[in-house]
Amino acid sequence: MFQDQLVSFSGVQPSGNLTIGNYLGAIKNFSTFSEKYKCFYCVVDEHAITVRQVPADLRRRTYETLALYMACGLDPDKNTLYVQSHVHEHAELGWILNCFTMFGELSRMTQFKDKSAKHADNINAGLFTYPVLMAADILLYQTDVVPVGIDQKQHVEICRDIAERFNQVFPDTFTIPEPVIPQQGMKIMSLAEPTKKMSKSDENVNAVVYILDDRDTIIRKFKRAVTDSDTVVRCADGKDGINNLMTIYSTFTGKTFDEIEREFDGKGYGDFKLAVGEVCADALAPVQEKYKCFISDKAQLEAQMKKGAEEASYVARRTLSKVQKKLGFVQVR
Ligand code: ATP
Ligand code: LTN
User: Fold this and answer.
1) Torsion angle in degrees (nearest 10) through CA of 225, 120, 62, 195
2) How remote is the CA of residue 146 from the centroid of ligand 2, in Å?
3) Ligand 1: which residue has its CA nearest to atom 26?
4) Which ligand 1 atom is at minimum distance from the Cα of 11?
5) pLDDT digits (tens, 9 = 90+) for 185-236
6) Is 61 touching ligand 1 by the criterion CB < 6 Å?
7) Measured from the CB, is residue 194 less than 6 Å from ligand 1?
């Protein structure tokens, strides 16, 4: 809670082109909080460097992610949209919270285990303490709700544990946040390996549908999606590919699984895959239109970044200063 208003906070890494997993699991839901909550949505570039990034790509994707936030309906006058590295309090609170986080609890994080297996040549300390910086992001704004996909639930839980530990020593410092995970679309799976999460840093571009893919590409990718040797469109254990396509179709159309099964009764996988591709392309077309407009005006994006960083800094500074005072840091300002 900040000044009598509930707070929503979330972040997306500029670590690749955004996917329909990011859209359905997270960004599409961000705007639903704008009416009731004070919303902070951040482009978390400091998190992205836990994995090696090409600097020019990171810079370009930071602009792109902000433009996509806006294209997905986040009005910068109603939401604070900004870049993590523009608000130095994130890194500073991150350090402090490191001293309230246990080695053992970080070792249990599944994202750390997955990413260190994937990047075995670069298991850096930042990758390990990634959830602590994420906790700082969230706690700086006295956040009540954190809209995320299910893969981030564990990180919000550790954030709660860190906040509770800190509050036990220094009462009434942080609001304890709740993760808000969508019932549908919480975990969109890869089109090539439907037991794996669809991820923007996947090397196989055919496994992933990007928000900015054109219509033909979207339809082609869904046509090629891995399914099974059955032919009936129905949800069942072991039919991971079809279950995933049904989830995507359902999330875009609002139809239930029963309705989808009835709609495709007597039709094969080919018809279903085409229909999924079409609803996805139709839903993304207006986002892509708006994106083109936002990304073409770099000066405007920079102005938004600056405005967002000023708004965020104002709140972040207050929380950090409260924390520093409680810890016993000398304040001479
Ligand atoms: P990376 O591959 O670089 O780790 P990512 O695609 O997992 O990235 P993030 O930036 O880590 O994306 O995630 C941004 C938001 O999107 C988070 O809230 C995350 O839970 C959500 N998200 C990411 N992938 C999916 C997915 N496949 N299904 C649902 N939500 C997702
Ligand atoms: N860890 C998240 C990105 C992220 C985030 C956050 C999400 C960084 N800070 C704060 C919610 C709240 C991810 O990998 N998707």
Assistant:
1) 20
2) 9
3) 21
4) 14
5) 899 999 999 999 999 989 999 999 999 999 999 999 999 999 988 888 999 8
6) no
7) no
Tokens for 240? Answer: 């991971």
Atom 30 (ligand 1) nearest CA: 25
Distance CA 253, CA 255 (A): 5
Q: Which amino acid is at 236?
A: A
Assess whether the C-beta atom of 200 lies below 6 angstroms from ligand 2: no
Please indicate whether residue 44, judged by its CB atom, sits closer than 6 Å to ligand 2: yes
pLDDT in tens, 298-319: 999 999 999 999 999 999 999 9
pLDDT digits (tens, 9 = 90+) for 73-104: 999 999 999 999 999 999 999 999 999 999 99
Q: Which three-class secondary structure state does DSSP give residue 197?
A: strand
- State residue 184's pLDDT score: 87
Query: Partners of 202 in the beta sheet?
Result: none
Are the C-beta atoms of residues 184 and 235 closer than 8 Å to each other? no
Task: Report pLDDT digits (tens) over 237-248.
Answer: 889 999 999 999
* pLDDT class of 180 with cuts at 50, 70, 90: very high
Residue located nearest, by CA, to atom 14 of ligand 1: 12
Q: Is the CB of 149 under 6 A from ligand 2?
A: no
112 alpha carbon to ligand 2 midpoint, in Å?
13
Crossing angle for the helix pair 55-71 and 269-295, to the nearest 10 degrees: 100
Buried b (16+ CB within 10 A) or exposed e, 58-94: beebbbbbbbbbbbbbbebeebbbbbbbbbebbebbb
Using the Cα atoms of residue 77, residue 79, residue 81 and residue 85 in order, give the sign of their dihedral: positive
Percentage helix, strand, coil, to 5, in the chain?
A: 55, 10, 35
Nearest to 165 by CA among 143, 141, 132: 132
Predicted model pTM: 0.95
Task: Tokens for 114, please give them.
Answer: 């997955």
Amino acid at 181: I
